Amino acid sequence: MILFGATGYTGRLAAHSMVAAGLSPVLAGRSATRLAELADELAAAGPAGASVTWQAADVDTPATVHALVTDPSDVLVSTVGPFTALGDPAISAAIRAGAAYVDSTGEPPFIERVFTDYHRQALVRGAHLLTAFGYDYVPGNLAGALAIKQARENGTLPVRVEIGYFVKGAFSMSSGTRASSAGVMFAPSFAFHHGRVQSERAAKSTSSFFVDGRPLDGLSVGGSEHFALPRLDSALLDVGVYLGWAGSRTKAASRAGAVVNAITAIPGARSLLAGITTRATSGPTGKGPDAEQRSGGISIAVARAFDESGTLIAETRVDGPTPYELTADLLAWVAAKLATARPESAGALGPADAFGLEALIDGCRGVGLEQVGSK
Questions:
Q1: pTM for this entry
Q2: Domain 138-322+368-374 has CATH 1.10.3200
Q3: b/e map 286-318, b = 16+ CB within 10 Å
Q4: Range list of H helices, 247-322
Q5: What span, in angstroms and rounded, lies between the C-alpha atoms of 213 and 198?
Q6: Which one of 94, 112, 120, 145 counts the least CB within 10 Å of its CB?
Q7: Range(s) for CATH 3.40.50.720 in the chain?
Q8: Is the CATH number 3.40.50.720 carried by domain 2-135+326-358?
Q9: Residues 82, 96: Cα–Cα separation, whole Å
Q10: Mean pLDDT computed over every residue of the chain
């Protein structure tokens, strides 16, 4: 398997998780010097006699990325972001080889591209694509699938699912996460309404979830759940996904989003604002919270299912490690899974329809992401 973007912040964490899980990834990235240093670091941290190899590749030279993936049995894990700007060479390389592809994106435009354009290409080549396979958006897929299952077991029909993402404890973003967030700030988003995926502006709506007895607000966002959860139950007509990172400023952020959306409708304004944001977030890459700053945090996803009258019929919650550790461990788990067994269906897949809900539950439990409540 190949880990592309290995020397970035998320990539380094994923590399350590892979080695700790007994895997031997080929490290890939732009800098040969940094790759060699990371390979030595991982070899020292791994089992006795462990050997870690590396291969230089750069998205600016797509041929070097294509050279990473040469066989349908390959598994390519990409942490190279912002994905909307930099993600295409890696997924194209995997599709071209008919291989398996996984990434750590949380960017709605890229997720939508994977489930539409790249899905069609992957079907032709027999490639398997699992996008957004980290804190964004595996916990919500798991919680949503559990809520749908619970509703059905109760003899009720789930027509709408709402998912809220929250973090308990301190949480700070890496340089890559900030860059990705900046890249999608002015980009169109989407939601699943009336039985189909529809375009809508980012942060168009808010929803409130009770977490540990407190109401917490979230901003609407496009996630993989909009594409993946309806595959699990044909009765599902609406899916809403909400990020609770803005806290008490959530409603104000939604109103501000409407203003930004109006401004970006002016010819040339979107490019100008995106350029300003890019400059504001430029700087050293691969930086993020250290182990102490990451410790103690809890990733939370809450899913609620409603019937056609709007009555709440099921609610589930899953908790896991802090977002970056969870993402790294999930990437290591799915890479190992794909190396030994491929999903029956090709194309773009969600976590549950790729492996089945029970396998997803087991895999998530292995990385500390588990159901902690339901009603």
A1: 0.89
A2: no
A3: bebbeeeebeebbbbbbbbbbbeeeeebbbbbb
A4: 250-264, 269-280, 291-294
A5: 33
A6: 120
A7: 2-135+326-358
A8: yes
A9: 22
A10: 87
